Every structure is written in C-alpha cells, then in structure tokens.
Amino acid sequence: MKAYFLFILLLSFTISTSQKINQEIKTEKGLQFLVGPINLDGLQSEPYKNWFTPSYLNYTVDKLLTKMMKKSLGEYKVKLFLGTWCGDSKRETPRILKILHEAKFPMKNLEIIALDRRKGFYKKSPGGEEKGLNIIKVPTLIFLKNGKEVNRIVESPIASLEEDMLAILSGETYIPNYSSK
How many helices (H) and strands (E) does the chain have? Predict the structure, then answer.
C-alpha cells in the first residue's frame, strides 16, 4: 500500500510539473493560437487544420532532393519554432513537416515549439525553449548535430526548402535569411 501511494504521488508530481503539449491561448479579442511544445495532433486540430492540412496535402516534395538527404538527416535533431498565428509559419510548416515525413526523418528527433504573439510574450514560449537561440523570425528550423547547432533556415528558404536543407546537411556554405554571420 505504501509503495502504491508513493507511485501515485510521484505520478501526480510528474504530471503537474511536465509541460503541457498543444497548449492553447484564447485572448479576450478572440485570437486563438498554440504555445509551447506541440505535435502533429495540435496542428491537425481546429482551427489550425484549416491551414495546415490543405497546405500539407497540396505541397509537392522534391523526391530526388529528399532522397539525397534521407541518410544524413537521421544524424540530426531538429527544432522548429513557429507561430500558429504567423503567415510565414502557416506557409512553411506544413511543407517542412511533409519533407521530413517523406525523408523518413525519425520524428522523435523533432521538437516543435509554438511561440506566443501577445504583447509582453511575443515570440516566447511558456517553457522558455527559445532562450539563447536568437529566434527573431518564425518559422525557424534549427539543425543540431551532437547537441550543437549546425545551421538554420529562417522564415523562408533561400532557394527551396529541399535545396536549403540538403545544403545544410551536406555541409555546404549556407547563410540563412536574417543571419548575423
């Protein structure tokens, strides 16, 4: 009985201290957006699926370039920072996720963080996942290898998502939009 009580206590503590997935904010003005860690379920729920699903389904992935990046992509962890309120994120996020899916990227290596849009919280997440990462525009797609940032795509690709991703994964010189390099 004592062990059972300790288990329940530990489980309660873990649940109460873990960050909520697909946390939604609804403002007094009727604005609705996700914040913090999210997953595909969040993007495929109302009202987000109204922009996510058609864009995902209608995007034609460059299969040749995706095939070329498939092997090396598995060596990376990827962080995607976006705003479900942002036009650029609404355009690029479904494309990015479809490319990763087509490349058979291990989704356990993908972290998707939705950022706030409210004054005082602008481009921040409840858990502070963006801290120290210089997120100035969304979406920002960060490629990490062995825990260190290799490069990123900021707001929109230079050539195409597939070409930019392949350049990063191949170690080519790649300077993203809004780079401080």
Answer: 6, 6
**What is the domain count for the chain?**
1
Residue 4 included in any domain? no
- Output 20-23 pairs: Cβ under 8 A, ≥24 positions apart: 23/126
CATH at residue 149: 3.40.30.10
Radius of gyration (C-alpha) of the chain in whole angstroms: 18
pLDDT digits (tens, 9 = 90+) for 120-143: 999 999 999 999 999 999 999 999
Domain hosting residue 163, numbered range: 21-169
The answer to whether residue 28 sits within a structural domain is yes
Cis-peptide, bond into residue 157, ω within 30° of zero:
no
Q: Which two tokens stand for residue 48?
A: 């987000």
- Report yes or no on 177 lying in a domain: no
Please spell the DSSP secondary structure of 60-118, one letter per residue.
---HHHHHHHHHHHTT-EEEEEE-TT-HHHHHHHHHHHHHHHHTT--GGGEEEEEPP-S
66-106 per-position pLDDT tens digit: 999 999 999 999 999 999 999 999 999 999 999 999 999 99
Residue 15 covered by a domain: no
Confirm whether pTM is higher than 0.90.
no
Helix/strand/coil for 49? helix
SS3 17: helix
Please give the single-letter amino acid code of residue 84: T
